[in-house]
Design goal:
about 425 residues, alpha+beta, Alpha-Beta Plaits, Glycinamide Ribonucleotide Synthetase, Chain A, domain 4, OB fold (Dihydrolipoamide Acetyltransferase, E2P), 5-stranded mixed β-barrel, binds adenosine-5'-triphosphate
Length: about 425
């Protein structure tokens, strides 16, 4: 209390956004968010919810997964802003030229349209600053201030669909050494909690997915439908002692980056659901990458299933010209990089075969070029071949890349098929 009996520190609901604190050499914005959440709580503020917000995965400035963080807090905004800036100055990797942190504290809601754009398209630093200047938000952009884009996007995020992730972080003395996480315990955690958690491991390809290989403080992260489920899986994991852990609410696994598109109207760096017909047979090229053309009545676009998508390519190889599909993926370098595919309908396929002889039931053979067919047993003749139906191994339905190749934002099919009506491609 001050002398007039007024609270020096006001208590208000606010959102704190932070981005661009890490570099390829270390740090992770989520770690900074977890430490800040703990410090704000220790100082007497209430941290209501912590968000890990993934943004457009095709942004070239990203270090790894284009993540920003947002903390929903009750407390004094000026104090929280100072604490957020202090922690950025203490932990961000300023030595990296491409690390340009941004900090935003806003008591007012910022327009969700900015988040929508940042998750599915590209934004300019000036747009973020203009929006901040129109509001009463406290903000600071370090160096070129690019991190303000992610910080504003995180604060303005409105999640229609959400999931959870528990992230555990390494003790400082462990940084740089191989992560010690018991592989068996991860497979067991997945077995016991899937489909309420996902992408801890890739069972089919026998790969651990949730332990990074990058020099950042994350030990492992478990994704799932709720805080309760990710915690349940986490309790089963045997590992080196983490320094701390934190449960984030996220837009991961929600397809938040996707918009509807058509083959002739795709912009580089955006991610689309596109409906059309397969117009060329899939081909496998050097490196094992599989491609085919998808067309509507006017245009075509190449679709790619790259080698890391492993068994997903076997599904793509089963496609035939004429099949109707909806593809999902980012448009990059003139191709859609497939994240999943919905097979709507398949064409029936026939092959020409020499006809069966009606008298002796044996298959005839060619009687020479343009001469039709002849039965070698009884001499009967037939002009036209039989058209025999080939059984298609591909069934209508949705197919996805394996967990080891999945993008953070891609909705796994264990959460349900995409709602194509919502994207206007239904
Ligand atoms: P990590 O996931 O490990 O925290 P990162 O992959 O999130 O790292 P950053 O270091 O945060 O990468 O860099 C991403 C940069 O791109 C940030 O400055 C962020 O503000 C900016 N950014 C994010 N989304 C967009 C977008 N849609 N348009 C333009 N810039 C963006």
């Amino acid at each position: 209390m001050d002398i007039a009996g007024q609270d020096i520190n006001s208590s208000a609901h606010m959102r704190i956004g932070i981005d661009d604190t890490d570099s390829p050499a270390g740090m992770c914005t989520t770690y900074l968010g977890a430490v800040l959440a703990d410090r704000l709580s220790d100082s007497g503020m209430t941290v209501c919810e912590t968000f890990l917000i993934r943004l457009n995965p095709n942004v070239i400035y990203k270090t790894r997964g284009n993540a920003a963080i947002c903390l929903d807090v009750i407390g004094d905004a000026n104090t929280a802003f100072c604490m957020a800036c202090d922690i950025v100055e203490e932990l961000a990797d300023f030595s990296c030229e491409d690390t340009n942190p941004g900090v935003v504290v806003s008591e007012d809601a910022l327009p969700p349209a900015f988040y929508q754009k940042a998750v599915s398209d590209f934004c300019e630093i000036s747009e973020a600053i203009a929006l901040l200047e129109e509001s009463d938000a406290l903000f600071r952009g370090y160096k070129n201030g690019r991190g303000l884009i992610g910080a504003v996007a995180a604060v303005s995020s409105f999640l229609e669909d959400k999931t959870s992730e528990i992230l555990t972080y390494r003790r400082p003395e462990c940084l740089g050494s191989p992560r010690i996480v018991d592989r068996k315990s991860l497979f067991l955690a997945e077995q016991e909690t899937y489909p309420h958690t996902w992408d801890t491991v890739d069972r089919r390809n026998d790969i651990v997915v949730c332990v990074p290989h990058t020099p950042d403080p994350v030990l492992y992260g478990i994704r799932g439908v709720s805080g309760e489920w990710v915690l349940r899986a986490r309790m089963m994991v045997v590992s080196e002692d983490p320094e701390r852990e934190h449960i984030f609410t996220t837009n991961q696994g929600t397809d938040a980056h996707m918009v509807a598109g058509s083959p002739g109207a795709l912009e580089p760096g955006r991610s689309y659901f596109v409906r059309g017909r397969v117009s060329t047979a899939p081909v496998t090229r050097n490196g094992g990458h599989v491609s085919f053309l998808l067309s509507d009545t006017r245009s075509s676009v190449r679709c790619m299933a790259y080698e890391p998508t492993k068994g997903f390519r076997d599904i793509i190889r089963l496609l035939c010209p004429g099949d109707e599909v909806v593809v999902a993926g980012s448009f990059k370098g003139g191709s859609i990089n497939l994240e999943k595919i919905g097979v709507i309908s398949i064409v029936s396929r026939t092959e020409r075969k020499a006809p069966l002889c009606v008298s002796c039931g044996r298959r005839m053979t060619s009687a020479g070029k343009g001469q039709g067919y002849k039965c070698r047993t009884c001499g009967a003749r037939e002009q036209e071949p039989d058209l025999v139906c080939i059984t298609r191994e591909l069934k209508p339905g949705w197919y996805e890349v394996p967990p080891s190749a999945r993008r953070h934002l891609a909705k796994p099919l264990c959460r349900g098929n995409p709602d194509l009506e919502k994207y206007g491609t239904g």
